[in-house]
């Protein structure tokens, strides 16, 4: 069973936490360690209670934090106070509104969600930006990749977690046939139909059946049949099915690899998984890269921002 690094604080008292945060921001200088300690000592639902308690004193906690803090430290604190889906829809909106769409961010957020999660994303996106997520995908993306992403947000993925081996075998055969010979539009439709609508457990069985049938993993066929963002999207779904912890471990590693750090993605992943499966992601990271996630974060970040990320991780 996957577990988060930030668990419910049994000793939590919203009014007490509220007072500590106010004290950390009053007077000369900011008590960063106190803010880090207070915010990472409780779960998101409890942080929302702190915001409400703070408001009873006639002040807006997020506004005070924004005025007191800056840079990536501020970004991370505000992300911790954001409702879970608000964090994801803000990332999606940023992916669409920057100069050139960030297709990688769209893939990372949409390709690993259940239908229920997609529905929540759509509702929160509409509520926050008064825009349809599907219409944004229609206007910002193109080609087969647009068809795949719009198919995913249509929320057609089966939520029945029971695996049907006979149906999986039929789907595996259809995918195998689609990967043989000249690639056609119908072949693309076959891949999209299976990848958008089968439950993740069912997809796992399909991938196993495909490998037995074809004598090779489906990733090889995807790399031969597709290219660009379409290929990356399909491969992301495969990885989400076969190795969900590895999916996130790899993406965290990508934020740290090479010159510079993709702070926005790093913050989003660590915060959004902190109450779900970050303990498992840490273990998988060590298996894949032979290093502790905390050590790599320590090497790539500095100051109070570094200490805050390590508090989330540990």
TrEMBL record:
Belongs to the annexin family. It comes from Chionoecetes opilio (Atlantic snow crab). This is Annexin. PANTHER family: ANNEXIN, ANNEXIN B11. It comes from the Eukaryota. GO terms for molecular function: calcium ion binding; calcium-dependent phospholipid binding; phosphatidylserine binding. The gene is ANXB12. Keywords: Annexin, Calcium, Calcium/phospholipid-binding, Repeat. GO terms for cellular component: cytoplasm; nucleus; plasma membrane; vesicle membrane. SMART domains: ANX. PROSITE patterns: ANNEXIN_1, ANNEXIN_2.
């Amino acid at each position: 069973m996957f577990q988060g690094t930030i668990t419910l604080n049994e000793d939590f008292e919203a009014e007490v936490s509220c007072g500590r945060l106010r004290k950390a921001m009053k007077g000369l200088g900011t008590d960063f360690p106190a803010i880090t300690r207070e915010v990472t000592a409780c779960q998101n639902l409890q942080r929302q209670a702190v915001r409400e308690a703070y408001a009873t004193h006639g002040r807006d906690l997020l506004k005070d934090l924004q005025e007191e803090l800056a840079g990536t430290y501020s970004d991370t604190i505000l992300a911790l106070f954001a409702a879970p889906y608000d964090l994801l829809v803000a990332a999606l909106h940023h992916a669409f509104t920057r100069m050139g769409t960030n297709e990688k961010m769209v893939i990372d957020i949409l390709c690993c969600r259940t239908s229920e999660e997609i529905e929540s994303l759509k509702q929160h996106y509409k509520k926050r930006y008064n825009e349809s997520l599907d219409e944004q995908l229609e206007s910002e993306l193109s080609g087969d990749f647009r068809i795949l992403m719009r198919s995913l947000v249509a929320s057609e993925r089966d939520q029945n977690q029971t695996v049907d081996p006979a149906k999986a075998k039929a789907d595996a055969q259809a995918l195998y046939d689609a990967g043989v010979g000249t690639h056609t539009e119908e072949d693309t439709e076959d891949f999209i139909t299976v990848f958008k609508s089968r439950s993740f457990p069912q997809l796992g069985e399909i991938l196993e059946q495909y490998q037995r049938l074809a004598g090779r993993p489906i990733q090889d066929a995807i790399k031969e049949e597709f290219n660009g963002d379409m290929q990356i999207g399909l491969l992301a779904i495969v990885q989400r099915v076969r190795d969900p912890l590895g999916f996130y471990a790899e993406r965290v590693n990508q934020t740290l690899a090479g010159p510079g750090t993709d702070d926005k993605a790093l913050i989003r992943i660590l915060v959004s998984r902190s109450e779900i499966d970050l303990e498992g992601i840490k273990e998988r990271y060590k298996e894949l890269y032979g290093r502790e996630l905390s050590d790599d974060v320590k090497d790539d970040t500095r100051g109070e921002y570094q200490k805050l990320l390590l508090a989330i991780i540990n």
